[in-house]
Structure formats: C-alpha cells, structure tokens
C-alpha cells in the first residue's frame, strides 16, 4: 500500500502507467459515448412534452456532471498538493483545469440551446445557470492564476488554495434547483431514487455519462503525460525517451 | 522508524504568547497608516460615488428605474470599490518587509490576518455604508429601503473584505495583480451580491426579510471563520515565492 503511495509520487512511474492506461480509457470511452449518443439521438422515444428537443440531454447532462466532478477532483488534488506536497497532484490540477473549463462551457452552451425551444429563451439568470457560470469563472481564475506565477511550486500551491476556496460553489450548484424556485428542472438522475424516465431513455444517458468520464480520464492522462515531460525535461529519462 | 523515535521530542513552547497586544498593535498601525495617507482612504469612496452617478446618467434618470435598480447599483458600486481598495491590504506591508516580520511572529497568522482585514473594513467598508443614505436619496429610494440597504451592506461588506483578502494574498507581488485579483475574487463575490440585493428587493415588496438577513449573517460567519485561514496560507505561499 505504502509502496504504491510512494510510487504515485514519482513522475517517471506515472508516465509509464498513464501510457499503458491510455487505450483502456480511450476505446471503451469512445464506444460508450458513441453508443449512448447514437442510441439517444436516433432510437430513444421522444418525450411526451418536449418532443425531440429533449435529446440534447444526452450531451448536456454528461457535460454538466463532468464539469462539477472535474472541479471536485481538482479540489481533492489541491488538498493533496497542500498537505502531502505530491507532485502529481498539482500536475493533475494544471492538466485538467482547461478541460474542465471547456466542459463547463459546453454544458452552458447545450443548456442554452435546449432552453430556447423549451423555455423560449437562450438564457435566464436563475440559480442553476448563474452558479454554473460562476463555476466557469472559477476555472478561468484558476488557469489565470497558474499562468501568472512563474515559479511552478508556488503556482501549484496558490492554485490549490484558490480551488479549495471555490469549492463552496459546488453544493450551491447541486442544490440550486431545490433551494430556489427555478425554471431548470430538478436533477435528472439520482443514485438513491428510481429515475423518472423509462429505461430506454435513461440507459443511453448513463452510457454517455460513463463514456464521457472515460474520455476525460484519457484526456487527463494524456495532458498529464505532456505536463510531466515538460516539467522533467532536464531529467535523464525524459532526454533518453525523446532520443 | 526506530532511529527517529530515539530523537528527543520537541516540546511545544510552553510560555503563553501575548495575542491581544499584537492584534491591537497591528490594528492601531493599520488604522494610523491609513489615516496618515488620507488619499487612500478617500479614493475608494470617491470611486463609489462616481460609479453610482454613472447609472442615472448612462442608463436612465427615470424615477421608476432608479427606484427599482438603486439597491443593485449601490451594491455593485460598493463591490467594485472594495475590489479596488484590496490592493492596499497587504501590498505596502509586503514591499516594506513588514509582512515578513508579521509572518515570523509567534502569534497565529490567522488572528493577524483577521485583524488586518477588520482594519481594512473599518477604513473602506464603513465609509461606504455611511455614504449610502445620501446616494440612496439621490437614487430615489424610500427610507425603508435605505435602512434595509445599509443593514445588508453592514453585513455584506465585511464578507467582501474577507473574501478579497484571499485574492489579495494570492496575487501579492505579481505583475498585473489588479486585473488578476478581480478575476479571482468576482466569482466569489456573486453570491454575496445576490443575497444582498435580494434582501432589499424582498423588503421593497413587503416580504419578510428575516431569512435573507440570516443568510447574509451566515455568509459573514463563514467568511470570518474560514477566509483568514485561506488568506494566511496564501500569504505564506506568496511571501516564500518572492
């Protein structure tokens, strides 16, 4: 157990592991996401109220899930950076922050596209949408702060503090649809309850969520590898690898 | 492991560290230095007044519009003015080396940061609140709304100062710290703004405001207890970086 923990601190060891994990994330991720989206867009039954426009749920909900999950993962990694000074944790934060920002933007964008036929407007300033917008700003802030500090160690620690402070926003997003009266519908899927949709609607949704998470894992590994190569560029193993 | 256990155990310092005199000294010093540099004291206030005056001129001087938007305008202006004044919070001390001395003190940095933020609020937040009734009358707000607005600012501006202290500590000593500070802090300010203006709107519609004030108070307690921790950690990072 402890040996594993110590190895996890070694960028070289992680570089190898990440390289071997890449196809295991990519292939099932692509398969699941494609199955989920094709099934959802082409074969799932139309909604009795929203007709076909609801089908964007198969992109909107996975991206919105991932947008929040990515921030929570960054916060956990930030805590690890501050407490155990683990190099890889801050590599992770730096690698996934732009991914999180893009996914959050996609969630907002697909939400806007979905809002137009359903609510009759692209955007409303309600709690769920505003808190997701704040999440996007928090991602941008973390990226900007990381870029502004030249020293890598200080940048990692400063970003970790910022990400941990911003984590107060996550429960606000999660419960915004329950605390406030809003146009946004309540949570689509809950672990504790039976879904309100028939299986032929929610199974493809679960598939695309899993697929997107796996693809995120793939992208995180790939970006972490790049970041490790950049940081360890003076190490002998990197120079041997490049040659 | 066995080698380590044989080492003599370090015992924590037993004699008590005088905490309150140190906090009092920091408070006195910060207040005195802002009183001696009056321009720093007046500039955020002037900025507050000028931003507020932009809205009737730029959007609409109609009584109906101002009455509806007045609370929001004053809140946004107070927020921006706090944001601009944050730069002073640690920068002078940092440049003069006082901050490093404060970090080396045996007193908990948490309390020193807390004191500095309270001092900052006393010289920037309180004048804003005192100025608010005058601007409220100019924005055609009625007496009830103005009283409610002042109360929300009384609860809300310290929260702005506390959250801002985290951003100020994180961006200490960076190039273009000002714009970066705004980018980091504004997202965290949005909830305070929403609850602050929400309270005044509820009061304007004759709805009960107790729950709104309770939420603002909760935000204040949360900021008061947690923000100095984060700001202290950020200060240590920034100072060790320079």
From TrEMBL, chain A:
Domain Cytochrome c assembly protein positions: 19-184
Transmembrane segments: 21-44, 56-84, 91-115, 127-146, 158-177, 201-222
Topology versus the membrane: Multi-pass membrane protein
Keywords: Cell inner membrane, Cell membrane, Cytochrome c-type biogenesis, Membrane, Transmembrane, Transmembrane helix, Transport
Record's subcellular location: Cell inner membrane; Membrane
Main localization, broad class: membrane
Origin: domain of life: Bacteria
Function, as annotated: Required for the export of heme to the periplasm for the biogenesis of c-type cytochromes.
Cross-referenced PANTHER family: CYTOCHROME B_B6 PROTEIN-RELATED, HEME EXPORTER PROTEIN C
Family: Belongs to the CcmC/CycZ/HelC family.
The name this protein goes by in its record: Heme exporter protein C
Protein species of origin: Marinobacter halodurans
Automatic annotation (TrEMBL), chain B:
The keyword Ribonucleoprotein belongs to this UniProt entry's keyword annotation: no
InterPro entries, per the entry: Cyt_c_biogenesis_CcmB, Cyt_c_CcmB_bac
Family matches, as Pfam families: CcmB (PF03379)
Residues spanning the membrane: 41-59, 71-90, 110-139, 146-172, 178-201, 213-235
Compartments where found: Cell inner membrane
Principal location class: membrane
Membrane topology qualifier: Multi-pass membrane protein
Keywords attached to this entry: Cell inner membrane, Cell membrane, Cytochrome c-type biogenesis, Membrane, Transmembrane, Transmembrane helix, Transport
Stated role: Required for the export of heme to the periplasm for the biogenesis of c-type cytochromes.
NCBIfam families: ccmB (TIGR01190)
Family in the record: Belongs to the CcmB/CycW/HelB family.
Name this protein carries in UniProt: Heme exporter protein B
Source organism (scientific name): Marinobacter halodurans
Lineage start: Bacteria, Pseudomonadati, Pseudomonadota, Gammaproteobacteria, Pseudomonadales
